[in-house]
Alpha-hydroxy acid oxidase
Amino acid sequence: MSDAPRIEALPAGLVNLADFEAAAQARVSAKPWGEAAWAYLNGGAADEITLRANRQAWDDLRLLPRVLRRLDGGHCRVRLLGRELQHPLLLAPIAYQKLFHDDGELAVAHAAAAQSAGLILSAQASVEMERVAAVMRSEPQAGPLWFQLYWRDDREFMQALLQRVEAAGYEALVLTVDAPVHGARDRERRAGFKLPEGIRAVNLGGRKQPLELQPGQSALFDGLLPRAAGWAEVEWLRAHSRLPLLLKGVAHEDDARQALQLGVSGLIVSNHGGRTLDSLPPTAALLPRLRAELGPEAMLLVDGGIRRGSDVLKAMALGANAVLLGRPYVHALAAAGALGVARALRLLRDELEIAMALSGCRTLADAGPQLLWRD
Amino acid sequence: MSDAPRIEALPAGLVNLADFEAAAQARVSAKPWGEAAWAYLNGGAADEITLRANRQAWDDLRLLPRVLRRLDGGHCRVRLLGRELQHPLLLAPIAYQKLFHDDGELAVAHAAAAQSAGLILSAQASVEMERVAAVMRSEPQAGPLWFQLYWRDDREFMQALLQRVEAAGYEALVLTVDAPVHGARDRERRAGFKLPEGIRAVNLGGRKQPLELQPGQSALFDGLLPRAAGWAEVEWLRAHSRLPLLLKGVAHEDDARQALQLGVSGLIVSNHGGRTLDSLPPTAALLPRLRAELGPEAMLLVDGGIRRGSDVLKAMALGANAVLLGRPYVHALAAAGALGVARALRLLRDELEIAMALSGCRTLADAGPQLLWRD
Amino acid sequence: MSDAPRIEALPAGLVNLADFEAAAQARVSAKPWGEAAWAYLNGGAADEITLRANRQAWDDLRLLPRVLRRLDGGHCRVRLLGRELQHPLLLAPIAYQKLFHDDGELAVAHAAAAQSAGLILSAQASVEMERVAAVMRSEPQAGPLWFQLYWRDDREFMQALLQRVEAAGYEALVLTVDAPVHGARDRERRAGFKLPEGIRAVNLGGRKQPLELQPGQSALFDGLLPRAAGWAEVEWLRAHSRLPLLLKGVAHEDDARQALQLGVSGLIVSNHGGRTLDSLPPTAALLPRLRAELGPEAMLLVDGGIRRGSDVLKAMALGANAVLLGRPYVHALAAAGALGVARALRLLRDELEIAMALSGCRTLADAGPQLLWRD
Amino acid sequence: MSDAPRIEALPAGLVNLADFEAAAQARVSAKPWGEAAWAYLNGGAADEITLRANRQAWDDLRLLPRVLRRLDGGHCRVRLLGRELQHPLLLAPIAYQKLFHDDGELAVAHAAAAQSAGLILSAQASVEMERVAAVMRSEPQAGPLWFQLYWRDDREFMQALLQRVEAAGYEALVLTVDAPVHGARDRERRAGFKLPEGIRAVNLGGRKQPLELQPGQSALFDGLLPRAAGWAEVEWLRAHSRLPLLLKGVAHEDDARQALQLGVSGLIVSNHGGRTLDSLPPTAALLPRLRAELGPEAMLLVDGGIRRGSDVLKAMALGANAVLLGRPYVHALAAAGALGVARALRLLRDELEIAMALSGCRTLADAGPQLLWRD
């Protein structure tokens, strides 16, 4: 079967996720489009203030541990949309993963399945959604499988997409709401990134309509933004799919409340990995405020800058129900394919379990605000 | 016509205003006076604490975006002195622009006119004010055209200057009040900057009277400062010109209130780009305090460290009615003449529109304090 | 006698503890296992945030001195567990010191004895506990001699160990409670550290039982943690040894209170030198909170990042009864054996006395919170 | 006359005090004892935290200027001990200035006299106090001339010294109280500084008694500190000299109050240039607290990290009556002798006047807390 995972040797000396990044850079650079793709993957918007702030904000949090508790039989399981997961790690939607490894999203699916991680496939995946789903289904212990999408102003197209997603067995929809237009990703633009021949969003057929502008009109305000999603489109999605819907990129509590009132199942607290509007607050700052505003029942996931098991624990302590990993798993993919991603996931989970043990958390329910040190 | 813009090739790879600075440095260095002129343009006072703080203060502000709002038909128009402007960008007064490009202020005027930006001509411009005005008038969509001046203790001279400014079609006067004496611009002094042959303040005729000091007198307190503007001179200007008057460089709220009481039309919140007294607060700190003290009706513009569309949006959120761009447009002038300045203006406006779209602002009226994240 | 100290020449130019670190690195690198052992000694967990924060937190404290007080006959003596000590310095438990010098813990004991410092022998010492105790007993002015241990889930083994410790003349037990499992010490793992032939924990006989796990069980939660110490084990230790018991690694005030209620004699405020869970608060932050919560009578020692006499004074001002020195004395051991450690101890004590004199403290009882400057 | 100032060429390009430091380093390095003397002059205690903090604290203060005020006839005069001074700059006591220039303190006196600066001669001056006084007396516009001293536990010696100081025409005494023992100046110790042949404290005759210690006694607490000054010695000095007495190095408000109650005329807020106890607060933090505690009438001078005219203005705004310049004038001495020091003083005064003009201060009485920006 062509969709069986290719097994590669793991580079030596990988002891944390940063090591995967270094290993990946060497491999990606060897590709013809390597340098530009690297800028595309790792760059952020403008001066990358938010990109750096995401990392820094987790680092700046301090844990106040408990000792001498009995932790026998502890675990890092969480419940999400009615399922019990082995651990709270999901893979964030990232486009065009064939840029970084020939197996692209398939390799990632194999790793996610093997390590019981959730997978949120990007609408701009470079592999057919059905093949990814088949890999996940083949493993009984696999984590949840969700589908991320952007709104396209073509209801016929959207309806067909939703039907295909449901038919393929995806369990939830994730609508990205923080990128109605592209951010100014200077690093990527300077590198002159464009998709190489043969890598494309294979799940998105149809044709985008060209912009038709009058002289003096703004491409943005008069061209692109009228086609972007609003609250009405969220309602339309709720009405036209039986799948639970999550919104990714909500920052303001009023928007969060409105989403929940419209029947949205959960929110992914995100600043798009620092790739849209530079100057957004780090997600480690957004998360606790949203949790405080929305109460304990709302489903809140978070991404952005998670690199350590202690970051995952901090996110849970700040109120996350689960955590998305982004660029690091693509680094692992580039470094060593499916095995690389599996190893990165295992490593992060191990770090999480160690962090729990060392801070006296038997389960993640023990990780609340009291775990965080206040000066 | 000699005043038609020279069209030059844009250097490749200009994706943000910082790129123009790099491109400019290469071109300016090639001039005989290049290194000194570069120090003159980019240097600040003393240790350049304020120069750096200006930039840092914008970077330190975080935006809290809204999502899923309908932004169709949005725009970045503002009203200023009774005119509607396409966008809130004006070019700050900067002296002797022929130092950086043979076309000097003329090239800048062509770009401002083409991009509908406002232009505040420096009294120390190296091109005749009438030629600059003619370029601006030739473009119906051109932004406002204002004239900046320093007080000279010679009322006859001043009256003639005001008449010439009015006759040339300038729409407002900007009196700079934060530089009664030169700041200690160490970088510039170390570079030994002096005006090269043939570049001078062509609009300032007359002769400055030499200082006549008694032994033991202070050149500053007994020589220069008695000739500097005070509130009486502001009143004199109000009485002797029909043009609206703005003050540039007011920092203290009591001074701001007094200015408005004397009929001043507006204030430009500025620390002179960090070029006068090192240690002044960054303008991003001064602006919100003045807005809070003066109420919503006062006209407040701001300059200092604006390099990004998100900086412009932050300035508007902090209470600015419009924003001045300083050194960056001279970098663009040096890098590629009129086309360079036009490109820089377009780029900054595009960044502003993207920032608005990504933070959910349909118009700049949506950019208020609630757009800023408070920790 | 083979246990007499070898006398080596001190490297020139050692004026502070940082100099010993530099001198040590050169000597350690020359050993076959040098680079890895260096990483083992100096590395911390993960990104070493806590390792750095420990140092920074002492540096960030400011002293507010008194002047013109009569300090004649002052001293830096303290009382600990009923003994009067010449000064408040103890040597923290560090494993396998033969990695750094052939004389290992014996050289350290000679220095501690000569300089009247306390010594806390690590259970993982590479020299027999009786030989260390004999060296300390040979010097009447020697400081206290304590024994550090980890819990092993084998009561027979533990009982034998306790009897041997008591018989050898150790005066107190220190149970390390902040490391039920290993931290992720990336630097050490990257260096591939393992114990060289001939260096081992000579005082720990017996055999650890291998983990027996079911498929799907967590090595951590189902294997290691069930064997770790809990509060019941603390009570067992109290019941099975007549020696005073201290806990090392308590951070939370509730744990501290529980320990004192169970008859624990004192606490060592520690984050294990940044070697267990990265993200723990610096000990200079933990200490004053514990002191405030527990009141003036509780016995609190502190370690982590102490490098200067002024750090010791700050620790005392924050409420410590004494202070542990860790890595620096091993640097001194590596640099020049027993003489190196003695010199380092003398140097630190001299710095402490100077700091007392310059801040107006006649004795350490004068070092309270009022000695610390609050902004 | 041998005491006439040698006139040297000023190095080119000196635009601020930092330039003098660079110029000085080149000249000092050429001396046989150059490197060690440079470490002695510029080094601070231990990790030089306080040394750096002194500078940083001035930089961190922001000025909030007023504009359009009439400043004609302004000046920077201050009153001190009943005299009106042209400006608030005094030269701090620094030992052994012949280390840096053959003319040593004499050159400095010529410059101080020419620039109307105050001079505080160090008791450890390398030139006879009478020759220094003669230079100062020769210039009618010279600033105040004070004498700094340390307590020596020999009342006969002290009485002779006081008589000589008075006879030589010194106007005040400055007792340094923050250095009863040497600080641990690591940089200086590492450089192996010792006084070269022929440079010594020529004004301090007599012989220091050697320490006589019993075994087990502390050189510090039992040897040096019993000889140090206490409050009784302050009273003795008040009783045995008609000169006003200032204390240098008081940090705590209770000590300050006690000093004033004993008839001390004023305090010099100082941390000894970061040379005694590392970790002392920067003087820019100590000064406003002391001013707030002591009220407006107390005489408070300040030193430490002053390098800019704006620093002087900030110090005055924080409550100083005058300001001491330390290392920078010795840099100027080394760079160009008397002319160098004169130029440095003029430059700093010019910067001060510019800072006053640019912040709207006609006199230094206008520089109060309202001049400082509060976030």
